[in-house]
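Data card: per-record layout.
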Amino acid sequence: MNNQKIFLITGISSGFGRAFASAALSAGNMVVGTVREQTACGNFESERPGFAKAVVLDVTDFDAIESKVAEIEQTIGPVSVLVNSAGYGHEGTIEESPLAELRHQFDVNVFGAVAMIKAVLPFMRERRTGHIINITSMGGYITLPGISYYCAVYLTQKEIRRVRKKGQSMNLALRFFKWVIACTRRARYRARLLN
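The structure for this 195-residue chain is written out next.
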C-alpha cells in the first residue's frame, strides 16, 4: 500500500516552508511548493526530481489561487496536506509604519492563508479527508516593541483558531470528515521574513 501524500506548501523558497518541504520529501512524499518567481522553481525541483514540483503563485494574488489549486489537483494529484507557510514581517513602530505595510502583512499572513484554505477545501471535502497546517507565531500571544503590525496579524490568526476550537466555525462545518486542522506557534527562526 502506497502511503505517499501530496503536500501543498506555500513559501518554500526559504524558512519554515523550505524546512517542511525538505522533511516531507525525505519521508517519500510529493511536494508542490509555491514560489513567487519562476527563477526559484529549478532550485526547489532539483532537491528531489520527480517528487518536488514548484509552482509560481503569490498568495496575495487572490484571483489566481483557486484556479492554480484546481490545476494542481488535476495535473499532479489530490492534495492531502496544505501547509500555509508563506509569511511576511514588518518591523517598525506604529507611528513610523505606513498603513500599506499593515495591509501587506494581512494580505500575506491572513488573507493569503484563508484563500489557500478556501481553494483546497472543496477537494478535501469531496474526498472526506485532509490536513491543514497554518504556521503562525508567538507574536499572537506576546507583543514586543517595534513589531505591532506583525503581532496584530498573528493575534488575528490566533482568534480565528479560537473560534474554530469552540466549534463555531471550520471544525464544526467539517466535523464529519477525517480532518486535522492545526496551527503551530513558532518562536524566533532565521528566515528571510523581515525586510
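Known properties of this structure: Helices lie at 15-26, 41-45, 62-75, 99-127, 148-165, 170-173. The mean pLDDT is 83.

See the next section for split statistics.
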